[in-house]
Amino acid sequence: MPQSKPNKSSSLRSDMKTPATEMPSLVIVEALRRRSMLKAMLGGVGLLAWPHSPVLAQSKEKVFRIAMSLSDIPVTRGQADGGAAGSRFINRSIYDALLTWDLSRVDRPADLKPNLAVSWSVDAANQNIWTFKLRRGVKFHDGSLFTAHDVVWNFEKLKNPKAPQYDPLQVRNGANWLASMKSYRAVDDYTVEITTKTPTGTLLYALSNIFYSSPRQWEKLGRDWQKFAFKPSGTGPWKLVKLVPRNRAELVGNPDHWNKQQIPRHDRMILRPMSDANTRVAGLLSGQVDMVEALPPDAVPKVKSSGMQVSTNVYPHIWPYMISHMPDSPFKDIRIRKAANLAIDRDSLVKLLGGLAVPAKGSVTPDHPWFGKPTFDIRYDPDEARKLMAEAGYGPKNPVKVKFAITSAGSGQMQPLPMNEFLQENFRDIGIDVSLEVVDWEAIRSKRFAGAHGAINKGIHGINYSWSVQYPIFGLIGQTYHGKNRVRGYNWGNFSDPKADALAAKAVRSFDSDSLNQALGNLHSYLVDQAMWIWVVHDKNPHGLSSKVKGFKQAQSWFQDFTQVRIE
Amino acid sequence: MLWYSLRRIAYILPILFGVSVVCFSLVHLAPGDPMTAVMPEFASAELIAQIKQAYGFDKPLPVQYLYWLQAIVSGDLGTSTTQNRPVLDELIPAIWNTGQLAIFGMLISLAAGIGLGVLAAYTRRLVTDRTITAAAIVGVSVPHYWVGMVLVAVFAVQLGLLPAMGMANTGTGVFGLDDIRFMILPAVTLALIPTGIIARSVRATVLDVRRQEFVQTLQANGLHPRRVFMHVVKNAAPSVLAIMGIQIAHLIGGSILVETVFGWPGTGYLLNTAIATRDLPLLQGTILVLAVFFVLMNFLVDLAQPFLDPRIKRQ
Question: Could you please report the per-residue DSSP string of chain B?
Fold first, then answer.
């Protein structure tokens, strides 16, 4: 049988299936070897077809292909959309931030570390003023030097509607991180001064989400952000070389990256948007991709039995019910809130999820520096729960009726339908009769933004909305904002408590890591003791990896370090 | 013929207007605030007002509709709110991608549907007929995305014969064998329903024509069966053409489920993305273009029918 000729036009088709380089006759031999008549017959069909392109097997290029759970390639201009996923795959690949997450350890939650900024300080006399010293010698992909003026230019991009580089699309995706910032200036080429509106110790977390686009590249492309999206220039470890919307982004390693440890260990990374979990799994099993995120629990045995890897780790994720604290809500009564937390058989739920979750004892896991020392031990104790319900005047024969809004799918929502049905039974056992209103992801986002007091949430006593606890404001502090201070999206249930307010204010004014951790621990303890939410489980963020993928260490973070991945 | 064509054009104008109204208003009926998708998380009231104004969402719906219609008439379908790219730039490659799939699917469904339909009609009440009829019913009834998943599981995962998802060589403009390989599974999946419908319609029409007196007369006059067959086909063609027109329009309209299952970046996938992200301009523009295409396809079928059957012109 003659060898098929390499197809020159497919030299970039590195995401095709490698085993397909086998000749059709070998497919039949292999099928017969496995004594599968069906496979043998269908292998015969392969004779009538044609072999997969052999180019890939001959190529020495090491390609890492990732199937994302997003439905499109996130915005590539500097501030990506798609939440943490956009940042994970695009921002952190093409760009750098002043600070970044240390993703080198798998045994502890990731923390911030210097990146484009080498050091920073807060003015002792005026805690609103921060000074950042920048790393020297950092270059954009276009070859120009990164300086303090570029930091200011990028802040203007997000903060100043009169600046020529102001980009509403990036404003939408990133401006909220700069909400506490009042002004900024370049003191010299490598020093930036930032003034906040009020003393804000959490500024560093916000700055880890601001990424720096090259002003020179933007000028070169005629000041056109549309063109920039296809030829972006950042300082990150990868350069974007091909962008096909809704299909793929191809990135090649940046050999000139300032951090030699962060130069990718593979030549090319291909990002494929695949919102459907079954499609991602099929892509992995058929060898078209090397890594899939959000692996569904029922696919885990098949992935493992196919000789592939399943990587998991806890991360700052919580799957809760955000409950209403409005005057007409049954959850205004702390006994019912505590009873609901004690009603959940989390171990059985974790089994239902194939072990891909961890029972929750609060918004973060007990080994997290923000966990603190809550006195309310969240556990499965239906007797205690029924006792609390009886004190509140309810029981299985006299249940309190509540309604929760849930989704059928969505970012971080895990397996919402079976999970909610399971929990519905748990709640019924202690005297909470839960009815579920299923809406889609965007609809529940609208409900979250509106708050429990919003018209669209009339009759709703809780929303099942997975949450990130990676950032202090987003995860914990914002949950205490209420009344006129409530920010759109925070504190859905309008939880209002003066002691929580004081603890949150103290956390915001904590400027060093230890005191911030301690303040957040105190706040978290108090929120758990008040049973502010119903905490259920933490996701273990399952990734499926082909056997060729080596060197992937799954950090306890919403972000991952893909630079260390080798393809062997 | 001119009068007939003008009359058809006059019919489609109000339909197109109705389509535009439905396209614009339907997306506003979906639960959830369309502004949520375009707002930053935790935006201040000031910023919300600014962005509403920038996207024109601060105006009453009828006013928004008029602005939208005005822009559409001038060829501007608006700008995607999630990617800030012109909707037309998003749509054109998606239509091209779906078009490739649709042509391939159409060839499969026409060849299989017509062939099987004629065969069933000529083997009426025999095993072949019953088998084809049963298969056609199954083809129409089984959820095609499920069939797609089964095909992927067998041909891509188990046997590794064909790719599980995606397109080959996107963006190069070169159409090669690899492109076809990537197309086989989604095209076969997509062709299932049209094949079943066409096969059943062809069978019924051919049977109907064969029962007519002129066919019996031709047979009684000793005409060669092949010549009789050609007469049958010619008389059956107008009804079959009408069915095929609708099915082809369906195929080109894309299938959200099939394109999502196969990660095929066509119009169905685009619609799925637009729905998931509440990208109103993209959603409205895509639905409008597909709906207009559907109307025009039917219009073309209407125009083609008199050529096959001049009696239609006189009706």
Answer: -HHHHHHHHHHHHHHHHHHHHHHHHHHHHSSS-THHHHSPTT--HHHHHHHHHHHTTTS-HHHHHHHHHHHHHTT---B-TTT--BHHHHHHHHHHHHHHHHHHHHHHHHHHHHHHHHHHHHTTTSHHHHHHHHHHHHHHHS-HHHHHHHHIIIIIIIS--S-SSS-SSTTS----HHHHHHHHHHHHHHHHHHHHHHHHHHHHHHHHHHHSHHHHHHHHTT--HHHHHHHHHHHHHHHHHHHHHHHHHHHHH--HHHHHHTT--SHHHHHHHHHHTT-HHHHHHHHHHHHHHHHHHHHHHHHHHHHH-THHHH-
